[in-house]
Amino acid sequence: MNGLIGKKIGMTSIFEEDGRNIACTVIEMGPCVVTQVKTQESDNYDAIQLGFVDAKEKNTSRAMQGHFKKAKTTPKRKVVEFRDFDIVEKSVGEEIKVDEVFEEGDIINAIGTSKGKGFQGVVKRHGFGGVNDATHGQHNRQRAPGSIGAASYPAKVFKGMRMAGRDGGTRVKIQNLEVMKIFPEQNLILVKGAVPGHKGAYVILEK
Amino acid sequence: MDAIKFVNKELSKKNEHPNFRPGDNVVVSYKIVEGSKERIQAYRGDVIQVKGTGETKTFTVRKMSNGVGVERVFPLSSPNIVKIEVLKHGKVRRARLYYLRGLVGKKARIKEKTRVGFKK
Question: I need a surface site. Which of A57, A139, A171, A203 has the fewest CB within 10 A?
Fold first, then answer.
């Protein structure tokens, strides 16, 4: 997978030639620095490791400091590995920019950490229908999960039963988004539709 | 935020429209595509709200059509808006004129403003 690390800026909308209004996410992509190159000989698989956004040295562990020193770059906040990165040949310490990896019209995937929703009920968390009746003997049950299993046999609630709990804040991949526009000088990319995460969150785009 | 402003500036088509406010009576000339044919439809009514900023700015125009209230939301930077004409400036005291929805006949009129001072 070829890809880059970016930062979500926010959303806006653009107009197409035929007047259609399209919601887009603006993402600041890279430039990312190659921090490590893994090959078949050294690691038994091909991969490239990229770093994004400068970090303070005091916030970087000694081990990572050594790692970045070896790549001859400053410490980075976000480090991600991309397997079988084959679009551009880069060696350690070199920068990769948006337009080297993506083109307008590309179909890509976006990976990010979704917004945390806190403790949520079953209707929001798993899309349950709830109880649709307010009358017919119902009371306080409009968003209840309903039955969670039979009684004396099996005499337990099965593992993995969908219930209320923490929602959001997990790694989410949105597939098949279209690249609408690229501004190479500003390192900006416009992606059709929404991308997981809050503004300022790290986003990985891959194609 | 600056990046979004930059993107909007780069991609906006720069259509110049006159300034208007909620309460104004406007005619919106809107391009409609029917199959392969194109025609321009004029929609006249009172602006009851202006919402959003930059490229995502929209305004709502309300009119009475055969005794039925019709509201239409236009994106201000839409390329389908050929022209906006301001016929009257209205004298109103609020930015969202939702109260007009509950009024009919003479009560639903907006008084015309005689002296108009726009900052821009």
Answer: A139
* Mean pLDDT to the nearest integer, B90-96: 91
Ordered domains of chain B (ranges, CATH): 3-99 (2.30.30.790)
Domain residue spans in chain A?
3-121+170-206, 122-167
The minimal CB distance from A183 to the residues B10, B56, B75 is found for B10
Contact B8 A15 (CB under 8 A): no
Chain A residue numbers touching B56 (CB-CB < 8 A): 12-13
Contact B3 A21 (CB under 8 A): no
> ipTM value of the model?
0.76
Nearest to B4 among A9, A15, A18 (CB): A9
Rounded Cα distance, B43 and B31, in Å: 11
CATH of the domain spanning A3-121+170-206: 2.40.30.10
Query: What is the DSSP track for B44-91?
Result: EEEEEEEE--GGG-EEEEEEEETTEEEEEEEETT-TTEEEEEEEE-B-
Residues 27-86 of B with CB under 8 A from A: 31, 33, 54-56, 75, 77-80
pTM exceeds 0.90? no
The pLDDT-based confidence of B6 (bands split at 50, 70, 90) is confident
